[in-house]
Amino acid sequence: MAYDTHLQERIDRIFADRKLEYRHLKMMGGLCYMLDEKMCLGIIKNQLMARVGPDNYEQCLAKEGCSEMNFTGRAMKGYVFVDQEALDLDSELEFYIDLCISYNPDAKRSKKKNRN
Fold first, then answer.
1. What is residue 1's predicted lDDT score, i.e. its pLDDT?
2. Are 11 and 23 in contact (CB under 8 A)?
3. Bridge partners, residue 35, by sequence
4. Residue 40's closest CA among 115, 114, 102?
5. Which among 4, 24, 41, 110 could disulfide-bond with 100, CB atoms 3.0 to 4.6 Å apart, if both were Cys?
6. Cα–Cα distance for residue pair 53/108, rounded to 1 Å
7. Which of 42, 1, 40, 3 is nearest to 20 (CA)?
8. Mapping DSSP to helix (H, G, I), strand (E, B) and coil, where does residue 53 land?
């Protein structure tokens, strides 16, 4: 299993309940949620990858089960990983989803690569 499908089902339900238009994109060995064509959040193995933005970054890191997102040896400010144990309750998952959705309008889009 490349990513936690139970976590995917929980996130899908929350997005559907909020009537959000989104799409899944497989990347980084996991699943990414695109909202308004911008990376909003994702699932890597059994962790939530949350794009919470720089203003919420330190607040999130202070919570148990939350850590810096680090793929390249350098932390990516504004992105955090949240352990499965810190997401047991729907309210815990919704806390991070709310931050990701709130930050999404300010998030920058990735530059599209020219594939000619």
1. 54
2. no
3. 22, 38
4. 102
5. 41
6. 11
7. 40
8. coil
C-alpha–C-alpha distance, residues 77 and 61, integer Å: 11
Alpha helices in the chain (DSSP H): 5-17, 54-61, 90-103
Q: 68-99 b/e with 16+ CB inside 10 Å = b?
A: ebeeeeeeeebbbbbeeebbeeeebbbbbbeb
Distance CA 69, CA 88 (A): 20
CA dist 28 and 42 (Å) reads 10
